[in-house]
């Protein structure tokens, strides 16, 4: 009788442990599924647009024009707009004259802090014909500043400058290169090519 009671007691304990583990596992799966569903809701765009062109103004004067083949808008804790196929931005001065041009393969715009992060073959060009090429560039609309810590190449009619870290105003008319790695005078390259 004591042996039977002991076996029943062991079986009850084992059954209780098994039931507890099964309940824990299934409840975790349910919670995980709920969490996945919530995450999926926040990761899906609320608006998908094709062939977009937006004109931004300041006091009725065009400030910049943005165009992109595809735009995805996301709403959640952080609201942002994604440009998975890249974008082009044209900036204008106070008289409405073209100042600068930027394009990239991919970009994301954070709406709260009014910043754009451009990635992949980023090109920035000003009205003087100076060009900056890099793989990553930030555009801060509030501070009216463009910057990166990535390697950059700046080309003008006389030279090519290679460096890292860059800051500029949004018209790319005044800029600072943090670490210059090299300068190539284009006239010297042409002379060297002719000598050969």
What descriptive keywords fit this protein?
single chain; 196 residues; alpha+beta; lipopolysaccharide transport protein A fold; 2 domains; 6-stranded antiparallel barrel; 11 strands; 27% helix; globular; disordered C terminus
Descriptive report:
The structure is a single chain. The relative contact order is 0.08. With 196 residues, this protein is of the alpha+beta class. It has helices at residues 2-43, 186-195; strands spanning 47-58, 61-74, 80-83, 87-92, 98-104, 106-110, 115-126, 131-140, 145-155, 159-169, 175-185. It has two domains: 1-44; 70-88 and 98-190, Lipopolysaccharide (LPS) transport protein A like domain (lipopolysaccharide transport protein A fold, Sandwich). 27% of the residues lie in helices and 53% in strands. It is globular, with a radius of gyration of 29 Å. Strand 6 and strand 7 form a beta hairpin. It has a six-stranded antiparallel β-barrel with strand order 2-3-6-7-5-4. It starts with a helix and ends with a helix. The model is unreliable at 189-196 (pLDDT under 50).
